[in-house]
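Q: Here's a chain of 1378 amino acids. Please give me its 3D structure as tokens.
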Amino acid sequence: MNNTKPIRVNGRNNVLKKKLLPLLLTLALLIGLLPSIGALQTVSAADTTAPSGGNYFNFPNEQYSASNARITTNQRVTLNGTINNVVGNSVSYSVYNITLNGSTEKVVNKIENQDDNITLNSNAITVTNLELFPGLNKITFKGTQGTSSVTESIYIEYRNSPMLYDLQATIRGSVYNILEDQTTVIQSALSQGKTKEDIAITGKAPNATKVAVTVNGRSYEYSVASSSDYSFTASPISVNAGKNVITIKVYNNSQVVETTREIAFYNGTVSFFDLQLTHDSDGVSVDNGGELSTTTNGSSLFLSGKAIIPIQNDGTKFKPDVTDMANIAAQFAYIPYGNTSVPFTAANITSIEPSVTDITTTTKFITVNFKLDLGASSGYSYDTAYKFQLQGYNVNEAQSQMSDSKTFYLRDNTKAYIYDVNYLSGYTSSMADNALQLEALEGTDIEGASIYSLPMGVEVLIGNYSSLGDYTNLIQMVNADGSANGNVTTKQAVHTQVVSRNVNGVQQSFLRVFLEISKLPTTGTQTLYFKLKNSTAVKSAQITLLYGPFVKYTDMYDGMSIDFDTTMAPDKGGITYMMGQLGNFAGQFQNVANPAELVYTNTGAPAKPQTVFFYVNNVEIPLKPDGTDNSKFSIDTTDANVLGTVFGLLNLTGENSFKIVFRTGKNNFESTVKVTIVPTNLPLIPAPNTDGIYPYSESRKAPLANDPNFKRQATIFTTKEASMNVYGTFDFIDLGSNYSTVSGRITDLGGSINNYILNVSSPDLVDTITWTLSNEFTLTSKGNPISGDNTVNKGLAVSGIEVFYDVDGQYFYFILKNQQLPKDGSSMVYNFTVFNSGEAGPRATNRLEVDPVAIPYTILSPVTEERKLNQNFVDVIISSPGADSILINGIEAQKVTYLDYSQDSVTPVPIEAYKVRVSNLKPNKVSPISLVITSATDKMTDQFNVDYEPANIPGAQFAQVMASSHKVFDGMLNLKFAKNSKLVRSDYNSTANNQTQVYSGNEILFGIANPTDGVLNRYEYRTQPADYWSENSIGKYYLDEFFTDRFIKASPLFWIDAGQADDDSTKAYDPITYGLNPYTYPVVQGDSDQQFFKRYDNGRELIPTAPGELTLSYDSSIAQSAGTVVTVFRYDPYNNIWENIGGVVDEKKHTIDVPFTKFGYYVVGKLTYGFNDINDHPYAREAMEAIYAKGLMNATDPTGIFGADQYVTRGEFARMIVRALDLPLNYEGTKHFIDVPVDSIINPNALYDYRYIETAARAGFVRGTRPETFEPKSNLTRQDAAVILAKALNLKLETDATKAKASLAKVFKDAGNANYYAVPSIVAIQKKGFIQGSLIDPSNPKGGSVFEPTAKLLRSDAAIIIGKVMADMKKLPKIYAN
């Protein structure tokens, strides 16, 4: 008994007995001293001489020859075997998917050197869940024996085709195995007497994804998955009493396996099934009509089958007597059509099931197998229908029961015959010449089929087709007696197909002929007769063409409404317009079995009775058929009398009825369409189906019918507004839907256009406003001017009113702008009148009354739509003519001049107003804004509400006075400032005026901007200055196009702004002490008019006096590797560039920290792809990717090459150090070096620029190569990199030269090659592990290393160095590098 526990060795279990360990070590040593047999010993399993078992890896159940590969249907297998003299922890395996050409193997797929799923126990080996490729697999095992490697291969063929087994049928809880080679009888006591029953079919279908079950013309589909062990349940499946043929298909991508099974549902009545007609060696099923192809001779025809009959037991005997075959035979009879009944005899009974010995008192029925001799085949004729029934006695019902009528035919096996005809339900006439579409159609039993439309498609299967020769025009439609039927029109497709069908378990070939039937003699139930040319046999099928002719008009439809100008005379376009709207009554009859029955007139020779009649408002109007298609019709558009008659019959001011009748001797069809003609020339104010006439706030960009500032009480509007606009609609003529039509209509009206008048009068108007159709108006669609020409009668505008014509609704509307309400509170009344036949003709009038309060005022901002806010502040601007002061939320409002762009977007109208910013609104709460307006001795108090509902989406804003810490947007953004931080100009070192100003108490604006264009507020409900948004496209271009394609935004786009410094170009002290919207525009005079992209070098930039710390949250779905690929980008609006500023990632919190030195846009970016020469690098990929992602290095060619194998320059290394240490840029004033160009425009993709070199020089860790010379483009040596790095990191340097040289000599063999000034730095950097040397002999690590101090430093090595430095500073995670 072995009690030694297995131990894990290299991921596998080995058992080692401690007592055997010394012996094993000795044995291994002896083996190692033996002469080498070879580096690799291999047994070729493809060789036919390969052993039946392995020499080194023995798997008893596997095959070592490709030609004898074990076959499996499982994708994963487990192998059990033993190893022979092979070191256990050296064993691995590879799986090769191969093909064979003779004995030559070709590998098409592979997985190599696997060992995770190998378990060893002594010399026993188990490989669990080894995954196979579909097809032939060669599994090669490899291990060490002595000093040699040995391999051996086994072969397994994985067949992934779908399979099907364990089929069972369940009926009312009773389960039956579905037999493969015979009919399965199913029954349940609960199903007795039912003609149909629902059952379930279950089974397993390995490697399948779908199972389709078809029974009795219905198909059911079910999914299959490995998660359910490939089991499926098809339920409910409806079966009929008696025999049911069930087809089951299993699918696996491109593979399909199909099987057919037969189930007999026994419902307590006598049932016959599996009826077979045989003659000599020929046979055919007769269950659904049998056609036996044979040769008649003197031998007999036989009919065999099965019958289920109930039995009874009275306790002593069975009825019928199951032990007496004669008694059983007496229960049955064969009844040929037209002949006498033939009783069965005992000789006809071949067996019963269950057998006599297995029948018990609980047995309820038996299955009787029988075979009848129908006489010599020579007594039967070919192509003749022989009908019969079978009779059986039901002891439970005490009566005989008959089978359905059965039919069989004998066919001459030397001649072709029609085997079957099927209905192709998906057929359309467009498929006639498309072989692929025809072959894809699946036929269903045509017998009893309901046909919904013509043409219809059928398939005819022809047996013995090889005798035909020519396949054209094979099928003829005939009458029952075989004579030609000219009332059925067919067309055979040119394409035919040879198909295989299962006939009595034997696959037989048939010719598949596709037939289109486009005409039938009638509708309803009818029998079609198909005959093969040169044959007398007729195949019949009863179908039902569902009667239901249908008329489809080209343009007209029921419920149609036509607008019509009743002043339009018939000869002036009236008839043409109306007939065009009605489509000339053109249409088509559909689903008519015989189009020849459509007779539109009884004229012609020979005359036929008219069957189609058309009525306009109950008056018959003749139709004429289309010349090429009798089913198509219209009125005769060439007959002016017909057109005039129709127009005269129309009710031009109401409903019209159009009826078409199709009447034959058997059927009658009527279709009535009602069309309403709506007169459009009566004057109306307001126009129907519009919002009418109403006042609305002057601040609104578009009219609003229910403006809350104007409350309607009955017919009077009340308001607190000081001014308003008035909107109204009217209608008196339809002009058309485009500029050309409208202009033409105006021209056609001539002088009568002055009869179309709109008058506006009011006691408060100096003069009545009169506008006519001869004055200017604008064509609009959905409230906007139509594209292209849109102004009619241009230059003839009427002062005080703007008129528009809506081309969609075909009505006019007007706007009265800037209507000043009486200051004393008097009502303002308007009367509107419209005419369409001059002022003496018909008119329509409307009245508008607006009643203002005593001290009117208008809230210019926020407008009503802006009072549900996503910001914690609101700018309130109030206009109140005559007001002396206004308190807004208790704050004295500042008097300002509001700029109203709604009337003129180029030169806004100035409005005297009062402004206050209300801050610190409470979130998720309605905040009342109180108003106190004082005018002389009068005082009015009021309030309105705003609702701050914060949501962290684009548009969110949060304003807060600058403090030491800001946490906004639910912690998505955290900004901390150093203690006592203030705001100063960015160029505070300049000698210009006012550069030393200091600002405090500024309100910082935080916003979430749109990630594409950076918009924070789109001002949807206000009118902006002209060209405002076209200018703003520049901002979108900067933000979107300049953002690198190699990164995606992984956080919202944040905007942070603290205002601007005093404007030196003005005499006033005018700093902006609150953060500005990036797309600002002047709302009041004096506001900034500079969008963010216009701030470039404007001299007003503010920065904090000391760097702060900004923490941003990023997408929490980003994986743990974010530390090296996530960075922060800042868009600097004063330099118009995106800058990658790096950042330190907290992968657990999904945040990133960066120094905060400038205001602007900030967003977290994630590297999506780098460069090929990074990806392909043998040892520095991770380091270069991280350093590039953090913005410390740029690509030498941003379009596609990083430059991994190029040398780093002095300028670039200086930039890398400055960026790695997060040093604030310090470059204003006199510069250190004259050979470093000062760029006026910063290129963010440059490898370096003067700012970084100057910052590094001022920090003291770079020096010139000569006085005032830096040589930024010179390649950096390894020793100079060490010197720069040691200084930048303030490392402690050895000052004793002797000690320094000795320390360096201990580490590097080439220490003497280092320049004296670099020795201490190299020693310090080596101790930190930032720069390593190279082995002199890689095969002998003890041979020592060299530093190569004067060698140039590769950019890839520079990335590794900086990566190690940043990891040491906790700014990056440790990076894997070789």
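Q: Can you summarize the key feature?
A: The mean pLDDT is 87.
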